[in-house]
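can u do me a favor
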C-alpha cells in the first residue's frame, strides 16, 4: 500500500509506480494516453535530477518541444490543473507554495 496524504498525493515520491499513476488517474477520471505518459516521464526525470517537482512552464516547454502543442495541450490532458492532477498522478508531493526550479 502506497502512503498518500488526505488529498491523494504521495507522502514519499520515491514510492511512485506506474500502477500508482494509473490508479491516481482513474480517481481523477483521466484515461492515460501517450501524451500523459510523456508528461509524467518528464516530471519524474526532473524530480530525480533536481529533487523538486518541475514548474509548469518547464513541462509546457517539454510538451511543446515533443509534440508542438504546449500550454493548451497540457490543460487538455489535465483539465483540473497541473498541481491537482499532473503532480498527483506523477507522484509529486503536494506543492506548498508554487515556485520550484
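np, heres the sequence
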Amino acid at each position: 500500500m502506497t502512503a498518500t496524504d488526505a488529498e491523494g498525493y504521495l507522502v514519499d515520491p520515491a514510492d511512485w509506480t506506474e500502477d500508482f499513476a494509473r490508479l491516481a488517474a482513474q480517481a481523477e477520471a483521466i484515461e492515460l494516453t501517450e501524451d500523459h505518459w510523456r508528461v509524467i516521464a518528464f516530471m519524474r526525470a526532473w524530480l530525480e535530477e533536481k529533487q523538486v517537482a518541475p514548474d509548469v512552464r518547464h513541462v509546457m516547454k517539454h510538451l511543446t518541444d515533443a509534440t508542438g502543442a504546449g500550454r493548451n495541450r497540457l490543460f487538455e490532458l489535465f483539465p483540473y490543473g497541473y498541481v491537482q492532477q499532473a503532480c498527483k498522478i506523477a507522484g509529486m508531493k503536494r506543492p506548498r507554495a508554487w515556485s520550484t526550479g
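Residues 13-89 form a domain with the Arc Repressor Mutant, subunit A fold (CATH 1.10.10.370). hope that helps!!
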